[in-house]
């Protein structure tokens, strides 16, 4: 710390110069500590150093411990101009950084960093509804719960997260699955405008008419192109829904898998019906959780008929406002979590095989069971092809555990289980070559699976907006653009 304060005097001289006048060669090689002092004295917003109390809460502001880190400092900008100034400086200085909106990803370093600057975007916390245009302008640091509650007064909503604590920026840039997706597409499909700070500090608006290439690239482009500060989102009418969750004992799993198969096998899926099933095969207390919602105030719709005959232990499904339904969702809570995603088609033989992999006996399940608080959650998300070409089942395997010493073992066991599921899907000819980013492990090459044509196009956009690859090289975390093949 002494070193940083010592440098502060020296930096006052530097701050008198306009940024553009700073010599590139002087700034290149700058250490993160010098960068932090510089930002603190010039930016006019809060910069937290490790000695400060706020640093502790912010550096550990990510949802689970696996994503906590020790940034050199945390910058909490409040205006796009501050982001622009900071990014321009870090780019010129060659200093590493990370960007966090809500920080709900468990991926280490996706939204945090060691030896570098963490942008805590929680200061971008406004939401403005424009009834005339039918849009909401939402700050990247907002949590979906606050967005929905604000919009509820106008009886409108946006296509956003299913868990209210999740942040707007990460979910939307990762593509974003919503209980409205079968009706209106993914969260990213509903972005009319991105306000973005580019690598050189330029602020641009990317939309259908202006920077349309960047607008396209940011839909699932994660942190590869710039720092998005605000999203303009399409709004839709909302009101009461029939929704809640049902809890089942573990021995209902075979019946529930049969019901999933029947629910997904219909020729034309009712887009108002949505569900997410989570089974906890290693924890009989938790059993199976079925979150279901019908996006109209209508009881027991036919779409969920395959589930109605299976006896539940608990049942909260009733007619209630959409936001109240969302508030009742139970996210898992363990200090350390990772998750892996894969996708496959609807097929009876494959469903049985997956059931066996996640509930049967295997070295991987034994390994996880042996860890302190070791558990898995098997998430089943039926996505209709009306929402996305790569629809069907977006499968997610969560693994949770307690101790940092177990990170490698837990990750390895989870990777091995998802590989078995993927192999089964391929063997039965049912694999869908798509990995849903928001549910993916950082070990998975999500963008590589967008297809070679898309990767080439994304690289073209990167060359146009970030020719020096700042967001590839100075932002090491998250899902990166793969090299072109
Ligand atoms: C730093 O300077 C070197 C040599 O001039 C250059 O090759 C490199 O790209 C610079 N790094 C950054 C991050 O600007
Ligand atoms: C929202 O819906 C409720 C219930 O239908 C209605 O009473 C209220 O006037 C609506 N508010 C607005 C702003 O449209
Ligand atoms: C199962 O989950 C419950 C509720 O989260 C927890 O209290 C319990 O310790 C878990 N049991 C095992 C064996 O993991
Ligand atoms: C799990 O723990 C038991 C008891 O300590 C041990 O015998 C067994 O080998 C362990 N299994 C795995 C897969 O780690």
UniProtKB/TrEMBL annotation:
<dbReference type="InterPro" id="IPR050416">
    <property type="entry name" value="FAD-linked_Oxidoreductase"/>
</dbReference>
<dbReference type="GO" id="GO:0016491">
    <property type="term" value="F:oxidoreductase activity"/>
</dbReference>
<dbReference type="InterPro" id="IPR006094">
    <property type="entry name" value="Oxid_FAD_bind_N"/>
</dbReference>
<dbReference type="InterPro" id="IPR036318">
    <property type="entry name" value="FAD-bd_PCMH-like_sf"/>
</dbReference>
<feature type="signal peptide">
    <location>
        <begin position="1"/>
        <end position="25"/>
    </location>
</feature>
<dbReference type="Pfam" id="PF01565">
    <property type="entry name" value="FAD_binding_4"/>
</dbReference>
<dbReference type="InterPro" id="IPR016167">
    <property type="entry name" value="FAD-bd_PCMH_sub1"/>
</dbReference>
<protein>
    <recommendedName>
        <fullName>FAD-binding PCMH-type domain-containing protein</fullName>
    </recommendedName>
</protein>
<keyword id="KW-0560">Oxidoreductase</keyword>
<feature type="domain" description="FAD-binding PCMH-type">
    <location>
        <begin position="67"/>
        <end position="238"/>
    </location>
</feature>
<keyword id="KW-0285">Flavoprotein</keyword>
<dbReference type="InterPro" id="IPR016166">
    <property type="entry name" value="FAD-bd_PCMH"/>
</dbReference>
<keyword id="KW-0274">FAD</keyword>
<comment type="similarity">
    <text>Belongs to the oxygen-dependent FAD-linked oxidoreductase family.</text>
</comment>
<keyword id="KW-0732">Signal</keyword>
<dbReference type="InterPro" id="IPR016169">
    <property type="entry name" value="FAD-bd_PCMH_sub2"/>
</dbReference>
<dbReference type="GO" id="GO:0071949">
    <property type="term" value="F:FAD binding"/>
</dbReference>
